[in-house]
Protein: Branched-chain-amino-acid aminotransferase
Organism: Paenibacillus filicis
Amino acid sequence: MLSNVRIERTESPKTKPNPEKLGFGQYFTDHMLLMDYSAEQGWHDPRIVPYAPLTLDPAAMVFHYGQAVFEGLKAYRTAEGGAQLFLPERNAKRLNRSLERMSMPKLEPGVLTEAIQALVGVDQDWIPEAEGTSLYIRPFIIATEAMLGVRASSSYLLAIVMSPVGAYFDGGLKPVDILVEPHDVRAVRGGTGAAKTAANYAGGLKAQAAAKEAGCAQVLWLDALERKYVEEVGSMNVFFRIDGQVYTPVLNGSILEGVTRGAVIELLEDWDVMFTARPLSIQELVQAAANGTLEEAFGTGTAAVISPIGGIRWNGQLYPINGGQVGELSQKLYDTITGIQRGMVRDVYGWTVPAVAEQEELRAGV
Amino acid sequence: MLSNVRIERTESPKTKPNPEKLGFGQYFTDHMLLMDYSAEQGWHDPRIVPYAPLTLDPAAMVFHYGQAVFEGLKAYRTAEGGAQLFLPERNAKRLNRSLERMSMPKLEPGVLTEAIQALVGVDQDWIPEAEGTSLYIRPFIIATEAMLGVRASSSYLLAIVMSPVGAYFDGGLKPVDILVEPHDVRAVRGGTGAAKTAANYAGGLKAQAAAKEAGCAQVLWLDALERKYVEEVGSMNVFFRIDGQVYTPVLNGSILEGVTRGAVIELLEDWDVMFTARPLSIQELVQAAANGTLEEAFGTGTAAVISPIGGIRWNGQLYPINGGQVGELSQKLYDTITGIQRGMVRDVYGWTVPAVAEQEELRAGV
């Protein structure tokens, strides 16, 4: 449970951005939530304060040794004018797994969701309403001790910032081509690939730029050991439908366990779609694309929900998938998940949680 | 070349720490050097200002996606009362290689060394004098754009901070035991292991804690692909003398190219010691330790220069090396390199550079 959150409201609220030009992660709400960790006090002093720069010693360990983890989730405006979160406890659990891998102190169960609800409560008029838009929520934790020895920091800062974001695809799903990266790798067994840590992202930017140059929207990462099995696409999990069966790479220690990935798997099982998580070689996939049995491929993640793949570029050749069209299953998954998120489809799975704390009254002492 | 450096001196100099209790990276000098990068202006506005916290937007990309590289080198007080740097241009070249790998903008040749010299010039009374002490210099570059999309930042900050540091070993070299890490890995071919980036350090803290628990001072990292070949020890390169021949792991894309490693190799070649850089399996090393042909082993790095290894713990067994004593070659390398650094041994290799700019006068307009 989160202890009492101190709230200091801004005296100069910002002008809200044009809801039709939100983009992603460019605008931030009026407030942020901060909480400190020290070895003596543990996590303490949760507070909501006006969005403002962080002040950190130049020797703060986050700048030098990379103890930094984050999460990403969204608050959705529902048809009835409410607001809800999608599976926030799975983000909270993954955050704790990330914290453990990076030798950082974990949060008590419930704290992350309550902190998010408290912050969304203060800035709820920032949740955009148009279809496809949402309020992106970014909790992150960084090492703050000012000391240059290579060891775990003794102090940390949790911050939550929020950004109203636009539709990922304007006017419906759009398949994109992806480039199989032949040289660089995202992560390896025994490394940090299964943690949502800053370390996993900067190393992929070079390959991402190469993909763009090759006319592709994303990198398809192969495993580091054999450079044979697919792992993730960009920073999303990836699924393939071959001959009516759906596959995704099995979690092997170097793949991030996506929240959307989990929801997709639950839907496939509920819908009695044949589904298997197993190693998938790039050879198998391009062969299936070439002989027409690769019926659909798509990435899954919080930003896009479902991102259809129109073709795979490998060894200089483009292997189109489903004629570059959105597959039936991709569309159904997208409609179902976004429908549940927006309260248009009944949430029979119990995936949604109010975005604004029902305990608001409790906190006020009622 | 570095353009004119603006200097703003502190009005409240700090009390200097007790020179006998410096430790490592705990105290910082009165000033720091900052320089900004923007897409429009490139690197600009180098300035020396009082040491103070950095102010960064909570959405600054360094906190989220890990674009952060650094270097570490030292200024040494010489016997004649001067001060010198050790091979700073190699740090500058490695910094540029790191920047390239992490999709960050490079520095012009000469700029890093000149920036360091300018800053040491301002804080030169912070260089400690006692044997084994020095002024540790930490240049680092971080992504500052406030935006949550996963792409390269459009703005960066270069900062250089300096810390007077104590002797790594009190009263001479002390061999330490090291633990072969069986599960976690530091880096992999195609990843970021050859770059000096924050990403490579936090992931190793868990293994480092496990080493400590096993009574070892450091982790001996194995390669990620086969978990068979040694790569680095802690955050140092590693050397072994077997039957009179010296070996170090060959640079394979996942090993950092250490400046001290390079100096050691040059000395070995100059001294006509048989030397080879090649893959070294842990099996070969513990066998050599068991049959007594592993005569010496040591780590190399800026902090310790030479760190002798007294024993290797692998699969629950400790393999002592050289009876836990400092080897002859280890001692000779340590004495030679530290002697050159302190101006006690003639620098026939041209490794040292004045720590305070001779161009100070030029800059002042003389």
Summary: Residues 88-101 of chain A form the longest helix (14 residues). Chain A has nine helices and 19 strands. Confidence is low (pLDDT under 50) at residues 361-366 of chain A.
